[in-house]
Design goal:
mainly beta; 11-stranded mixed β-sheet; about 725 residues; Immunoglobulin-like; 5 helices
Length: about 725
């Protein structure tokens, strides 16, 4: 926890949740029991009166009595629970007999259990009718949480079929007020008592981050809350998250100090323990975030606007490899370079790992390495070095080898041999990683000034020139060697290839201005080349045509291949030659979605494009190069996808290092809405593990981080209780 600049919660939470250590990184897990199996033979009880429906499942007609309806009492209960304490709820199953008014208590003939969200609590293993909330009992246990669970009761019919009745139970977790242990000066003894005064609009703080309407993954690790203090006399702040499942309140001073913060800024950090406490209790729900402010005597209370902060049901998994700009060591001789870092969302580390670094493991100093792509299984990486007009290949075909060991670089970016003969600028692996599709369209391109198809002077001195420098084609390469073994000829210059997860299509940027480089293409649209099912490829289909005063580029398929994302930038005055319309952090760049079909109708992801409070109404945020996570996760009755962009958005009230700096932002998207022609996006959040003082780009996802030193598996959470055995009638 970075307590020197922003107040956090770990010490207080360690007291509230005694079995979770400060900075704990144990993951949580969810369990969906699905349809219970047919129970084995169990104890003998009187037979359940059979049913003719009316709220149960699996009933059959017959017998002396017919149950016309069943219900669980109490229905849809909501119970408060204080952190560190347990709460119980007793249940009954009541049934009405057909043609009679009275209800029978049938509880003794049913067994109870929780088939989902079992870490909230459950029933005894014998299926008796009292629910008990869960408390951690070991240091490795997930923290206590609130939330909504399904209460399911089952019994057997005389024909051995199952009768099932369900309801819901919501435990609303109330955490005693948490005070920052790092506040200077120290907080009053009972800070909450000072917020009972009259509301004073002049004291109102301005909530700035997280953005209103954002969706956060439960395993984000940490979260900062930023606000402007309002009145200069405000000295004490209340930060509260309230939802149907939890109420968590923090008390703090202003907290944001140092050169990395804007003037007149306040902040509060939930470290890993504090964030999990909040997110685990709100999986699948929306919390209301609000800041209140007063002074140390309680003279009036200012209230901020209330922001909606939603939490996904499931964790984000997989690994993210991204490119960081490195300033030159000698500006007179070099424009600088870049390195590739990686972060494991499924691991326990809180910081990214430098991975491909100039000057290390066979890479030259001040040698830019980037434009990288990963195989979906995380075992292979391909990249290029040297930037524009260069593109010598770097390939690692087995990331499980020790870094820097002999043979670690299958292709090492050299000026001769295979790295020079198999140049790339952008590339993508097929689903199983056996093939690479790539472009190289830079030979003789001198920015936007000229196109000289025979000019080699801009290539590195002494560098071998590829045999085939055709630019109206895609190059196919062996995924293990990086050697070209085929081409797809096209009637246009392609860029930014992306092989669909189902392997049936390759999406590309169509470049109509062929005198521009692969890194700064102009007059572009989106095309898809589909497989013919016999090892070949059908003619290219135009999905979004070039023109119309906009540049459209960098397609990226979603995990199930049903649609793709891309960047669209509006050119100033419709000028397709504008430097602000060259696919390189264009100010007006936004993310769009479209089905991968001929002349499809694109959809602007408008919520994702919304500015945050700290952007001061700006609409030019430069959201560029969307890259999708390979996973789809359950969310309610639907699912979520996730993607990242490089953006010039303001990271809340933190300072950016300059107007050109880009940071990685992440967004959730509801695919069902997109496929229905609607905006399915949520507002975004910046990735908190990145260095906010560097410029970060191209967040390429993979299913997992592969390494010669894989992290130890995290401790397992308590196992889910098995469904109890319904009694056997006699």
């Amino acid at each position: 926890m970075r307590a020197h600049f922003v107040f956090g919660t770990s010490l207080a939470l360690a007291a509230v949740v005694p079995f979770v250590a400060c900075g704990s990184t144990e993951p949580e897990s969810t369990f969906d029991a699905g349809t219970p199996p047919t129970p084995p033979t169990g104890p003998t009880t009187p037979p359940l009166p059979v049913t003719d429906g009316g709220g149960s499942e699996g009933g059959v007609a017959g017998g002396e009595l017919v149950v016309s309806s069943l219900r669980i009492d109490p229905p849809d209960a909501v119970r408060p629970v204080v952190a560190g304490q347990k709460v119980t709820q007793a249940y009954r199953v009541l049934g009405k007999i057909k043609d009679r008014d009275e209800e029978l208590d049938l509880t003794s003939r049913f067994v109870f259990y929780v088939p989902d969200n079992y870490l909230v609590g459950g029933f005894p293993l014998d299926g008796s009718a009292t629910f008990t909330s869960r408390l951690p009992t070991a240091p490795t246990d997930p923290p206590q949480r609130g939330g909504k669970v399904t209460v399911r009761a089952q019994a057997r019919n005389t024909d051995d079929s199952l009768v099932t009745v369900t309801t819901s139970l919501t435990l609303k977790l109330t955490v005693p007020p948490i005070t920052s242990p790092n506040a200077t000066p120290a907080l009053p003894a009972t800070p909450g008592a000072l917020f009972g005064g009259a509301v004073d609009a002049a004291r109102a703080p301005t909530l700035a981050y997280p953005n209103n309407g954002t969706m956060l993954p439960p395993n984000l690790r940490r979260l900062e809350v930023h606000w402007q203090p309002g009145s200069a006399t405000n000295t004490l702040y209340e930060v509260s998250f309230k939802s149907p499942s939890a109420e968590i309140t923090y008390y703090s001073r202003c907290g944001a100090l140092g050169a990395t913060w804007k003037p007149d800024s306040c902040a509060f950090e939930l470290d890993e323990t504090g964030y999990r406490y909040l997110s685990d209790s709100n999986r699948g729900e929306t919390a209301k975030l609000r800041i209140r402010a007063t002074d140390d005597t309680g003279t009036g209370v200012g209230e901020s606007a209330t922001f909606d902060v939603s939490f996904a049901e499931a964790n984000v998994e997989g690994g993210l490899y991204y490119w960081k700009v490195i300033p030159p060591t000698n500006p007179e001789l070099s424009n600088g370079s870049g390195e590739v870092l990686r972060f494991d969302f499924g691991g326990t580390a809180s910081a990214p790992e430098p991975f491909l670094v100039p000057g290390q493991n066979g890479l030259a100093q001040d040698q830019c390495v980037g434009c990288h792509a990963l195989s979906r299984d995380g075992k292979k990486l391909v990249a290029s070095v040297g930037g524009r007009w260069d593109g010598r290949q770097v390939l690692i075909n087995d990331l499980s080898r020790p870094v820097g060991s002999s043979g670690w670089l299958t292709q090492g970016g050299g000026t001769t041999g295979a790295p020079a003969q198999n140049r790339i600028q952008f590339a993508s692996f097929n689903p199983d990683g056996t093939r690479i599709v790539a472009v190289y369209g830079d030979r003789g391109n001198v920015g936007r000034d000229a196109f000289r198809p025979t000019e080699d002077a801009l290539l590195p001195v002494g560098s071998v020139v590829p045999t085939d420098l055709g630019f109206r084609k895609l190059f196919l390469m062996d995924g293990s060697t990086g050697i070209r073994n085929g081409t797809i000829d096209l009637p246009y210059k392609p860029d930014h290839p992306d092989w669909s997860p189902d392997g049936k299509s390759i999406a590309v940027t169509r470049v109509n201005d062929e005198a521009t480089t692969s890194q700064e293409p102009a007059n572009t649209g989106i095309e898809v080349i589909k497989s013919d099912g016999a090892g070949g490829w059908l003619p290219s289909e135009t999905v979004v045509a070039p023109g119309g005063g906009a540049n459209r580029f960098a397609p990226s398929f979603v995990p199930d291949s049903t649609f793709l994302l891309y960047t669209e930038a509006t050119c100033p005055g419709g000028d397709l030659q504008s430097i602000e319309c060259d696919a390189n952090a264009d100010p007006t760049a936004k993310t769009w979605a479209t089905k991968p079909d001929r002349n499809a109708t694109p959809i602007l992801l408008a919520k994702a494009a919304q500015a945050g409070v700290a952007d001061n109404g700006a609409t030019s945020l430069a959201d560029t190069l969307p890259k999708t996570s390979p996973f789809q996760t359950k969310q309610g009755s639907g699912k979520l996808f996730w993607y990242t962009v490089a953006s010039r958005r303001e990271p809340g009230l933190r300072k950016r290092t300059g107007a050109g700096q880009q940071l990685l932002w992440m967004f959730a998207i509801d695919p069902a809405k997109v496929l229905a022609g609607q905006d399915g996006s949520f507002t975004g959040f910046y990735l908190p593990f990145q260095d906010l003082q560097t410029s970060n780009h191209i967040g390429q996802w993979t299913q997992k981080i592969v390494s010669d030193q894989p992290p130890p598996p995290p401790p397992s959470p308590p196992p889910p209780p098995p469904p109890p055995v319904p009694p056997v009638p006699r």
